[in-house]
User: What shape does this take?
Amino acid sequence: MAIKIEKKITGYEVVKAGDREEQPSNVTHIAPLLERDDILDGITYKIKTPMSDHAMYITINDVVVNVGTPDEHRRPFEVFINSKNMEHFMWIVALTRVISAIFRKGGDITFLVEEMKAVFDPRGGYYKRGGRYMPSLVAEIGEVIQQHLVSIGMMEGQLDTPELEAKRREVKERLGDDAIAKGNQCDKCGAMAVIRLDNCNTCLECGDSKCG
Assistant: This one.
């Protein structure tokens, strides 16, 4: 291949093959996307808020990775959200596509929970069954994802228990709605759900208590 020299030659040097070592290039390998099996196991969660007459159904399908190895485990692959309420249809479709894309990228996906649960509705939040305050519908969807990650072992924490729900009802009855809405941040799970009751700080999200 001929190369046209457009500048004046002021010197030259003969270089033999092998005289100069090629500088190795830094190659960044991107993890391959998770592959979808023909059949996936999934769980459907129901959300019923006072903001709508219709329930919302969230289905999270999982894929099993590293099959047959000590590192075999389940992880989310895709999410679907359905409801008869068409008010939020556009942003819900967008949300499911973005979340599913993040699931398929692999790696640590637990940051989704924190980001979604930090979304506040400017019109105000609501209380779900059991007395837990939800700052927005997006935050409750984030909580569903959290519960799913806990159930398959991808995230630390505990699932909802009758004891936790009873504690939330007690706080709501004794201290009122504002106390729950203004909870402090939990050192263990990061949720803004720490309430002082009977001289004891207790997280109404994960159940962590300084009093044992």
